[in-house]
């Protein structure tokens, strides 16, 4: 009898974490490494949020809380959804977890039975398919190539739905592409979903505030209120407020689903960190200047990276609507050989050779379900990005 479960054997370690770990190991050996693999803002958490965390410690708020979030944080989340998204949720419709990933995982674990299908547009965040597998479900990936803006079309959605479909996972703006759905594009999808009442929507809105060029963010339940009773709207403080390490995510949806997720959380992790909850409440209710200021910085960095990568031989880099990633194609480099002698027969070979030969860590496109591409996170300084782009250009110029 095997000790490890067969289900775990079907799950892969996160490729983004693996690449970031390898880059850190090379840096520890003395290599000059520029890591563009992690999806994490490089800014400090805003001061008023840090102070709220310190105040929580000093006030003795270091004990257990309600299993899926304090009442005051749930009120702040409900107010955020009303203020920013036009969504009317009671605090009892809200759940809080240890990061957005836990909200997603709880929802899937609480609802999926063996063989239930989950539609996942590709490219996708690397954790979606594996979380579905862990919950006993079947990931149904739908390719969304650059030619259609890396977006799911209503025709492709319709074709992917079967009687076993239980969820559609929708991430806008997207990790890894930065592609966003405007109101018309989102409505085209919700029109399809209205025809299939068994399909729920898991809306991952974690990059909501990181949008550029006047792009207006929308979320499915906002665009089509008739879907609200089968939408879980997930968000968090990690990306918008540079709070990745604080580990607070939240979601809102129908009470029966929220109760089921709370039951699961009560028997797994229990409550999120009490101190982090106080800090998250300060983030949602306090000054919002940081969002505006960081958005301007990220847009400048996006433009720097897109311009620089499009000047590299063999790279085609679309302009994303949001998040802090670009997802360039290297189709023209497939079949070439690097200066170091690596045959570039896949985007994984490209990423590994780039790290070995030029010290730039990116994540290969196959990890996100669509090749031949690679993902760059531009959540680092302009100087480091400029140097990274120069190294990538040098690497590409040497491929023949």
Please name the defining characteristics of this protein.
400 residues; alpha/beta; Aspartate Aminotransferase, domain 2; 2 domains; seven-stranded mixed β-sheet; three-stranded antiparallel β-sheet; 14 strands; 40% helix; globular
Rg estimate, integer Å:
21 Å
Classified by CATH, the class of the largest domain is Alpha Beta
Q: Can you tell me the CATH topology of the largest domain?
A: Aspartate Aminotransferase, domain 2
Q: Judging by the overall fold, what is the CATH architecture of the largest domain? A: 3-Layer(aba) Sandwich
Low-confidence stretches: none
What's the total number of strands? 14
Shape label: globular
**How much beta, percentage-wise?**
5-15%
Strand order of the largest sheet: 2-8-7-6-5-3-4
- Main β-sheet description: 7 strands, mixed
Structural class, judged by helices and strands? alpha/beta
Roughly how much helix do the residues carry, as a percent range? Answer: 40-55%
Our measurement of the CA-to-CA distance between the termini, rounded to an integer number of angstroms, reads 51 Å
Oligomer: single chain
Order of helices and strands: HHEHHEHEHEHEHEHEEHHHEEEHEEEH
The overall pLDDT average reads: 96
Folded structure, characterized:
This protein has 400 residues and is of the alpha/beta class. 40% of the residues lie in helices and 14% in strands. It has 14 helices and 14 strands. Strands 2-8-7-6-5-3-4 form a seven-stranded mixed sheet, sandwiched between helices. Helix 8 links the parallel strand 5 and strand 6. Helix 3 packs antiparallel against helix 11, helix 4 runs parallel beside helix 11 and helix 5 crosses helix 10. The longest helix is centred in the C-terminal third of the chain and has 22 residues. It is globular.
């Amino acid at each position: 009898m095997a000790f490890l479960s067969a289900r775990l054997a079907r799950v892969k370690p996160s490729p983004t974490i693996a690449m970031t770990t390898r880059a850190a190991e090379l840096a520890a050996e003395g290599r000059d490494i520029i890591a563009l693999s992690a999806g994490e803002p490089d800014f400090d958490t805003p001061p008023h949020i840090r102070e709220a965390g310190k105040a929580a410690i000093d006030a003795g708020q270091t004990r257990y809380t309600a299993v899926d979030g304090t009442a005051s944080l749930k009120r702040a989340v409900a107010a955020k959804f009303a203020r920013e998204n036009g969504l009317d949720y009671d605090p009892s419709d809200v759940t809080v977890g240890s990061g957005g990933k836990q909200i997603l995982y709880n929802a899937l674990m609480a609802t999926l039975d063996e063989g239930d299908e989950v539609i996942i547009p590709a490219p996708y965040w690397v954790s979606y398919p594996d979380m579905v597998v862990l919950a006993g479900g079947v990931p149904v990936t739908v390719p969304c190539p650059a030619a259609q803006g890396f977006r799911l079309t209503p025709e492709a959605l319709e074709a992917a739905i079967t009687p076993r479909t239980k969820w559609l996972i929708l991430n806008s703006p997207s990790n890894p592409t930065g592609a966003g759905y405007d109101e018309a594009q989102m409505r085209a999808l919700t029109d399809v979903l209205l025809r299939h009442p068994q399909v729920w929507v898991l809306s991952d809105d974690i990059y909501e505030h990181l949008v550029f060029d006047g792009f207006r963010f929308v979320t499915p339940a906002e665009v089509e209120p008739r879907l609200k009773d089968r939408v879980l709207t997930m968000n968090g403080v990690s990306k918008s407020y540079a709070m990745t390490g604080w580990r607070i995510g939240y979601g809102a949806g129908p009470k029966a689903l929220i109760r089921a997720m709370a039951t699961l959380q009560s028997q797994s992790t229990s409550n999120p960190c009490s101190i982090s909850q106080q800090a998250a409440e300060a983030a949602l209710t306090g000054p919002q200047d940081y969002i505006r200021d960081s958005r301007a910085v990220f847009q400048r960095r996006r433009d720097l990276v897109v311009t620089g990568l499009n000047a590299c031989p063999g790279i085609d880099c679309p302009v994303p609507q949001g998040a802090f990633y670009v997802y360039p194609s290297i189709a023209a480099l497939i079949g070439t050989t690097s200066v170091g002698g690596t045959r570039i027969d896949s985007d994984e070979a490209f990423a590994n050779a780039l790290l070995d030969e030029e010290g730039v860590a990116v994540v290969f496109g196959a990890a996100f379900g669509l090749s031949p591409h690679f993902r760059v996170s531009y959540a680092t300084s302009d100087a480091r990005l400029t140097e990274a782009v120069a190294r990538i250009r040098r690497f590409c110029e040497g491929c023949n």
